[in-house]
């Protein structure tokens, strides 16, 4: 007899969950991105004990009907893509259809959702990937997902989590990035009952910078704007005085997504030239917009990396955009000679 078994669906889901759900911040990321995809204009994120005990994300988006409230927990269940061709021009944040399945596999989840034109909502409760209850519920329009007791059924993973404080720190960094990537959405972040951030959602990147970095960030930055050959670079770079000893205040937003890119970071850093001392890293929030065909977002499941078709062109343009912004400032500061 052969030794190969096909794993049960539950076991396969539990393994797949590891790819999506590493820690509470990965849950928050998936849930908030779902809220954005649902067209929400206001999203509230609440965590308790670093999100290990509870993560709650409430949105005022389109909501789901009764059928979808169950279907959304199936793996590879998505309303955002039909076939592989669509992979080339993804405009939504999610597309793999595995986030809710993975989250539900390793926690206790309560979903409450109501569509905008519906009188009554639906509540679904899942535990370790199994449906516990589904009932009608009076709830506001939009969707609330409550994720409790993360990794209660996989103690080995639970052990790998850090102290609640550190986990809350990861979530907080993520929310800061989400506020910056989506100035048009009012994002509220509450940790153990304490309000940490509340962005106005007025669509202005500068307000988002103010929400995250306070007065210092909002007053110490220079505007960046350069549009050329189908690539648009905009946002803010910080005065050299805002530089830090690490890259925590470097943010790239590519077609609305927070992205990490060492090559582009280097392009900004070299643009500062002698303005920065060695081992100091600039403050910046730069939005890069290219045609969706010019960038592949399907590189890694966490979607933090992208691949540009013409990285050299993008890199050169980021560099020039920052050089221009810094030069404009230097010229403005230079005393004018009288004729
Ligand atoms: P994906 O986002 O990749 O499609 P998910 O597992 O995150 O996969 O979600 C599955 C589906 O559930 C989504 O495609 C969407 O139709 C629905 N959904 C999830 N969250 C929300 C939400 N907050 N509001 C409305 N629909 C949602
Ligand atoms: Mg999703």
From TrEMBL:
Keyword Thylakoid: no
Any single GO CC term annotated in Swiss-Prot or TrEMBL for this entry: mismatch repair complex
Chain's role: This protein is involved in the repair of mismatches in DNA. It is required for dam-dependent methyl-directed DNA mismatch repair. May act as a 'molecular matchmaker', a protein that promotes the formation of a stable complex between two or more DNA-binding proteins in an ATP-dependent manner without itself being part of a final effector complex.
Residues covered by the DNA mismatch repair protein S5 domain: 209-327
UniProt source species: Luoshenia tenuis
Protein's UniProt name: DNA mismatch repair protein MutL
GO molecular-function term, one example from the UniProt record: mismatched DNA binding
Sorted UniProt keywords: DNA damage, DNA repair, Endonuclease, Hydrolase, Nuclease
Stretch of the intact protein here: 1 to 339 of 667
A Gene Ontology BP annotation from the UniProt entry: mismatch repair
Source superkingdom: Bacteria
Gene that specifies this protein: mutL
Homology family: Belongs to the DNA mismatch repair MutL/HexB family.
